[in-house]
């Protein structure tokens, strides 16, 4: 019995020694598969997509918050609430990707071969990656903020259709060029959800 116990101790010690690195990775993957997938390999397209989608979603949430106070049509208000409820959690998910990847939330000038300076978009101070469409300028956001009732409803719907189209194009680029499975899954979700909302908004535009 003592010989067997000693052998067991030696075997256990051996697992934690030179082969420790080989045994730790599967254990981590088994214990937390979601975290492992999120932290999986990613490329520059993944990073650009996530860094760009955060301010893009943030602006959509701001616009939706305006609708809660300024919209005249109940259906527009309900749509804005759904947009806010969907994109708020997605912003946190996007930030989680960057934290897991060890990437900054704001891309520096020249990162990934792109110059992010001087883009002039109205989502705050955060620079926009090249090719990001649908962002409202500061002037457009000010105009939306000053509108009320039916004028607001039409302006909001027109701007949000453009905004959604930009997000869809960004998501399609991620599907084509990205590598990380979680980021690509979110991109597909964005395409499906926002395309449905575009159809809804276009129908609303014919009634407001």
What do you see in this structure?
This protein is an all-alpha fold. It has a domain at 43-103 and 126-208: Ferritin, core subunit, four-helix bundle (Ferritin, Up-down Bundle). It has 8 helices and no strands. The longest helix is centred in the last third of the chain and has 29 residues, at 149-177.
Strand/helix succession: HHHHHHHH
Describe the global form.
elongated
- Structural class estimated from helices and strands: mainly alpha
Count of helical segments?
8
Low-confidence stretches: 1-34, 109-131
Mean pLDDT: 79
Major β-sheet annotation: none
Briefly note the CATH topology name of the domain at 43-103 and 126-208.
Ferritin
Number of strands: 0
| Share of helix, binned | over 70%
Radius of gyration: 23 Å
Distance between the termini: 85 Å
Oligomer: single chain
CATH architecture field of the domain at 43-103 and 126-208: Up-down Bundle
Estimate the strand proportion. under 5%
In CATH terms, the superfamily of the domain at 43-103 and 126-208 is Ferritin, core subunit, four-helix bundle
Name of the level-1 CATH class of the domain at 43-103 and 126-208: Mainly Alpha
Short summary of the structure?
The chain is mostly helical and 208 residues long.
What are the SSEs and their pairings?
Blueprint: H1 2-15, H2 20-31, H3 33-38, H4 44-70, H5 74-101, H6 138-146, H7 149-177, H8 181-205
Can you give keywords for this protein?
single chain; 8 helices; disordered N terminus; mainly alpha; Ferritin
């Amino acid at each position: 019995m003592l010989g067997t116990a000693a052998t067991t101790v030696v075997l256990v010690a051996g697992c934690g020694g030179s082969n420790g690195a080989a045994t730790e990775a599967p254990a981590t993957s088994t214990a937390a598969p979601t975290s492992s997938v999120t932290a999986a390999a990613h490329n520059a397209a993944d990073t650009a997509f996530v860094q760009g989608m955060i301010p893009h979603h943030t602006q959509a949430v701001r616009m939706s918050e305006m609708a809660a106070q300024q919209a005249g049509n109940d259906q527009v208000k309900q749509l804005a609430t759904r947009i806010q409820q969907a994109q708020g959690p997605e912003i946190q998910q996007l930030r989680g990707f960057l934290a897991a990847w060890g990437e900054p939330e704001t891309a520096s000038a020249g990162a990934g071969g792109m110059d992010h300076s001087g883009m002039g978009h109205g989502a705050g101070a955060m620079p926009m990656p090249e090719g990001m469409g649908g962002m409202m300028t500061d002037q457009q956001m000010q105009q939306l903020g000053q509108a009320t009732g039916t004028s607001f409803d039409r302006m909001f719907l027109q701007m949000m259709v453009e905004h959604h189209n930009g997000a869809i194009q960004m998501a399609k680029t991620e599907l084509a060029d990205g590598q990380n499975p979680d980021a690509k899954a979110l991109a597909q979700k964005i395409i499906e959800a926002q395309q449905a909302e575009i159809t809804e908004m276009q129908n609303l535009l014919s009634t407001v």
